[in-house]
Amino acid sequence: MTVTPLSKEELRFEQAVQDLLSQQYAVLDHFLSAEEVGHILQTLHHNLHAGRFNPAGIGRQAGFQVNQDIRKDHIQWLDHDHPPEGCTVFFSRLQALTDYLNRTCFLGIRDMEMHFAVYQPGGFYKRHLDVFHQAQSRKLSAICYLNPGWKEEDGGALQLYLPQPDGSERTETLLPLAGRLVLFDSQVLEHEVQVARRERCSITGWLKDEPRLF
């Protein structure tokens, strides 16, 4: 029996799978090139200046509220079936990764929901979990950062809280570097966005095991 070797892309995806299994999160640097990030940022800033972003909230449906003591960013929801200019390559690559995860891990991911997120200087999001008690369809959180030249002193790091087998907890701090994709278990890992000291942009969202109803 001949085994077809994995492509370069599949090797990266396989490493992400192994990292998710072993530590419940994965980091794929250079998921987008600098040029691809630049094209997406042009669209993001155009939409931001056109007033298409709204203050982000917490909760859902009747429990939805905007509380800037907990979360201080602005978002615009994206339609991955009709991606905005510059974003097609991101959604295509994320779909390829999703297909690989479904083939190898049998996650049953059937949909994704993604949005632009912008934190202005002083923006943050306190420690939280990405699933709701009444809705458990989010399986993996996915964040792709769009911040050229980001430095540690710019703040805005993603802080992951990792439960340990002995009941303790350790933290992992990840800078929002341009082109970096972070995946983690939506139902297990609490996380926060530390205070940003410059504008911090991303495409953020979730891979879900339930399809959209519309």
Automatic annotation (TrEMBL):
Gene3D superfamilies: q2cbj1_9rhob like domain. The keyword NAD does not apply. Keywords: Dioxygenase, Iron, Metal-binding, Oxidoreductase, Vitamin C. GO terms for molecular function: ferrous iron binding; L-ascorbic acid binding; peptidyl-proline dioxygenase activity. PROSITE patterns: FE2OG_OXY. InterPro entries: HIF_prolyl_hydroxylases, Oxoglu/Fe-dep_dioxygenase_dom, Pro_4_hyd_alph, Pro_4_hyd_alph_FE2OG_OXY. Residues 105-209 form the Fe2OG dioxygenase domain. Its cofactor is L-ascorbate. One of its GO terms (biological process) is cellular response to hypoxia. The keyword Iron applies. It holds the Pfam family 2OG-FeII_Oxy_3. This is 2OG-Fe(II) oxygenase.
